[in-house]
Amino acid sequence: MTHAPAREDPVVAAVSEVIGGPVGDHARPGRRWWRPVAVLMVLAAVVFSLGMVKTTPCYQQTWTGNTTYQNFCYSDLPYLYTARGFAEHNWPYTADPAVRARYPDVMEYPVGISYWAWGASWVTRWLVGSPDLSQRYQTPVGDLWNAPGVMKEVRVFFVVNAVGFAIVVIIAAGLLAGAARRRPWDAAAFALSPVLLMSGLVNWDLLAVGFVAGALYAWSRGRPMLTGLLIGLGTATKLYPLFLLGGLLVICLRRRRISDFLAATAAALLAWVVANLPAYVTGPEQWKVFWTFNSNRAADLGSPWLALQQMTNHTFSAHAINDASWLFFSAWCLGVLIIGLRAPATPRFAQLGFLLVAGFLLVNKVYSPQYVLWLLPLAVLARPRWRDQLIWQGAELAYFCAVWWYLADKLQAGDGTSPFYWISIAVRMAGQIYLVVMVVRDMYRPWADPVRSATYHAPEPTEASAQPALG
């Protein structure tokens, strides 16, 4: 039986009063084809379409001028079309000396994003016609933006990517509804997400979100190899899906199903290797750029390290930040392992995955505005309560606005500092920590977990203890 959110979620119940209140006990089911999954996929399409409409000011001006920041419609996609050679349809990992001399900057993302962007450039070429590349080759890369026909291609390239992302989002909404099994409406917090609307088109991160949603679905259906395959492909697109294997390890240790963990890990490794092989074979040095770029990267936007640097006027080396961040994250992972093993009931995959990814993001060297999408599919299933989702996403939206104002030089104080921007970073981190606390609380009190509250029965208190045993 499908659960009724308006009966158990106070926020949904309050909103439902606008249309007559929660569904009644004798309400008749709707049409067979108009199931929750279909509704959620439609809602996701509508929300993402609104996100596309939001970019209209930038689209009309082809992402020129301060309008990109002031209208919250900045995107990396248009700029990388010309800066990384896609306007000339170059393979991202080519080792051709002439191409590398013209484009010394290689795509700084994992191979999945590079493949997608390259494929989108060819779709763009098919839609607008083949440009005269011989003439384009004579134009300096810095001037390509104003070359004949390029601005039109930039807009088409953006639309091609946006349509692809929309398909990914719609499928992801359906997969999350399926992963929730008896509670498909939990995925509504994904389909109707404000951060999805605002951040979905900043970069290519939604591709990895699709793989994470698929991994959650596959695990819910008891298919560890498919789960691993999707984690591997997700890791080839963005690094963070790799951390989901840590969540599987906890679950498999609890359930004494190490063979499932090994199968998932082997499938993930195989998928990652196969996905990376074309890039590595054609340009091993270009393939390494993602790893060297991130290793050598200094403190950047959204990071507590950046705020600390600006407040203290002390610059931390990339090496020092790397060591401190990985030390913190290692300790965080150990803590998640201990919590996961000591919880009264085996934690859910989404709960563990959320905790691991959140720990990584809290002290990462950079927190780009779209990184919130990494947490989104995990968060909505880890803590399916609208109040908590809105608190967390509200904090993320506060940072989303602040970072664009910061880049537009609107948050500089008279002495050149940016205290409001530092506060926005702290607010974002506080929102994540709040949701972390709620998820950990649910893991230690499964009778309060919205997903388990109807089926989990806490042990009766004994004379020795008035509290339920934590195991």
Question: Topology of this structure?
Answer:
Blueprint: H1 5-8, H2 10-16, H3 36-54, H4 56-60, H5 67-70, H6 76-83, H7 97-102, H8 111-128, H9 133-137, H10 150-179, H11 188-191, H12 194-199, H13 206-220, H14 224-235, H15 244-255, H16 258-282, H17 284-287, H18 289-296, H19 304-312, H20 318-342, H21 349-362, H22 372-382, H23 386-407, H24 419-444
Helix pairs in contact: 3-10, 6-10, 8-10, 10-13, 13-14, 13-22, 14-16, 15-16, 15-20, 15-21, 19-24, 20-21, 21-22, 21-24, 23-24
Structure description:
The protein is mainly α and 471 residues long. It has one domain. It is built from 24 helices and no strands. The model is unreliable at 16-21 and 460-471 (pLDDT under 50). It has helices at residues 5-8, 10-16, 36-54, 56-60, 67-70, 76-83, 97-102, 111-128, 133-137, 150-179, 188-191, 194-199, 206-220, 224-235, 244-255, 258-282, 284-287, 289-296, 304-312, 318-342, 349-362, 372-382, 386-407, 419-444.
What's the helix count? 24
Low-pLDDT residue intervals, each spanning 5 or more residues: 16-21, 460-471
Using only C-alpha atoms, the radius of gyration works out to 23 Å
In total, how many domains does the architecture comprise? 1
Shape: globular
Number of strands: 0
Give the amount of beta strand, in percent: under 5%
Helix percent reads: 55-70%
CA-to-CA gap between the ends? 31 Å
Q: What's the order of the H and E elements? A: HHHHHHHHHHHHHHHHHHHHHHHH
Essential attributes:
single chain, 471 residues, mainly alpha, 24 helices, 0% strand, globular, disordered C terminus
